[in-house]
Amino acid sequence: MQAQRILKFLSEIAHNNNREWFYENKKEYDAVRKDFEADIEKAILKIAEFDPSVAHLSIKDVTYRFNRDTRFSPDKSPYKRHLGAYIAAHGKKSLHGGYYIHLEPGHCMLCVGTYWLPTNILTACRNEIMSRIDDWRKMVENRRFVSLFGRPDDVAKAKKTDEEGGEYDMGLPKGFGIVHLKSAPAGFPRDYEHIQYLRMKDYCCWRHVDDSFFEQDNWLSEMARVMRVGKPMMDFINAVVDDYE
Questions:
Q1: Cα gap 121→95, rounded to integer Å
Q2: Cα separation of 41 and 218, whole Å?
């Protein structure tokens, strides 16, 4: 992947986020977008080696418009500052968890899982975790998972949160969960031994990578290694989510 070229363009548009500059540099955008999409196609094939459920996906199924939806945002910048791909078997708009690749200067990352589940599904996931806590802990407390993604308390302690959870700290190198409640969710016991897994409002594990990561000759293999470790956790949650889709 020509990551340096892609990140250079993204850095430039972050400082020139207006339609005039974009149209003057449209050829460069088209070039970096084409390169990004070509490598995402390779990423789909690589992930399909251990998760065949994504093999049917096309670029349109996993990538997003570069234009921002500014209708409800105080930030009226017309364009995004990143390129991302969400490789999910049921499509990028589904609740079914998947694999996310994010390119942004200083904030490149790899993610596995699902984000912002509706309350009823989130409650079902919490109940499933409680009923199968031993299975769950084997997936998220093994050495490889913790080494790559950490533990939910690591993220919760590093964030400034309100009662609804707040935003995660992009400065963290890794994390398990993006939004965490301060206490037990309604209807669940506050003294539950493994309450940290019930306070999570999403079941997504993520890891920041250096901007140079995607320039490596073996970045696809390294990406797959990370994604594979997060897959059992994602499969556990998807088994619940799929009952509602």
A1: 10
A2: 15
Q: What is the DSSP letter of 227?
A: H
pLDDT per position as a tens digit, 84-124: 999 999 999 999 999 999 999 999 999 999 988 999 999 99
User: Helix/strand/coil (H, E, C) string of 119-178?
Assistant: HHHHHHHHHHHHHCHHHHHHHHCCHHHHHHHCCHHHHHHHCCCCCCCCCCCCCCCEEECC
Rounded distance between C-alpha atoms, residue 21 and residue 235, angstroms:
43
Q: Are 88 and 207 in contact (CB under 8 A)?
A: no
Please report how many Cα atoms fall inside a 13 Å half-sphere around the Cα of residue 192, on the Cβ side: 20
Give the C-alpha separation, 176 to 33, whole Å.
Answer: 30
The counts of H helices and E strands in the chain are 9, 5
* Model confidence pLDDT, tens digit, residues 184-237: 999 999 999 999 999 999 999 999 999 999 999 999 999 999 999 999 999 999
Cα 241–49–40 angle (5° rounding)?
80
* 63 secondary structure, DSSP code: B
DSSP 97: -
Sheet with 83-87, side-by-side order of all strands: 83-87, 98-103, 109-114, 203-208, 174-176
| Closest to 125 measured CA to CA, from 232, 192, 202 | 202
Question: Could you give the angle at the alpha carbon of 197 between the alpha carbons of 194 and 199, nearest 5°?
Answer: 110
